[in-house]
Amino acid sequence: QVQLVESGGGLVQAGGSLRLSCVASGSINSVGLMHWYRQTPGHQRELVATSSVSGSGNYADSVKGRFTISRDNAQNTMYLQMSSLKPEDTAVYYCNADIWSRVSGSLRLINYWGQGTQVTVSS
């Protein structure tokens, strides 16, 4: 069993910064791609950023130049440094990861979601 746990959300004024963390724990052989998504009420979940295993990042146009994704593979942890925050960044942010686990003697790649952390940016 694998769990993803996000932390670091909160209330911040426009122009401020927050750093989100996502820790993967449990029966983990290795972690593949990791992603940050966000969702606002009534809208579909939106991909914000993706980290390759090597740590290189890809970003949604709406956050390029303001958000930085990173990871610590030794700690199975991913981060999202968010700067120059805007009210439109307000959302629940979710961690998502492709994780290799040994199940019944076989390695399996399973996608997991965290429970989400609220980010609120006030104007």
Detailed description of the structure:
The protein has strands spanning 2-7, 10-13, 18-26, 30-39, 46-51, 57-59, 67-72, 77-82, 91-103, 106-113, 117-122. With 123 residues, the chain is mainly beta. The N and C termini lie far apart (41 Å).
Provide the succession of SSEs: EEEEEEEEEEE
Tertiary shape: elongated
Secondary structure: helix percent: under 10%
Report the average pLDDT across residues: 97
* Backbone CA Rg: 15 Å
SS strand fraction: over 45%
Q: Give a count of the beta strands, DSSP E runs of length 2 or more.
A: 11
**Count of helix runs:** 0
SS-derived structural category: mainly beta
Largest sheet composition: 7 strands, mixed
Low-confidence stretches: none
Termini separation comes to: 41 Å
Please name the defining characteristics of this protein:
123 residues; mainly beta; 7-stranded mixed sheet; 4-stranded antiparallel sheet; 63% strand; elongated
Topology (elements, then pairings):
Elements: E1 2-7, E2 10-13, E3 18-26, E4 30-39, E5 46-51, E6 57-59, E7 67-72, E8 77-82, E9 91-103, E10 106-113, E11 117-122
Parallel strand pairs: 2-11
Antiparallel strand pairs: 1-3, 3-8, 4-5, 4-9, 5-6, 7-8, 9-10, 9-11
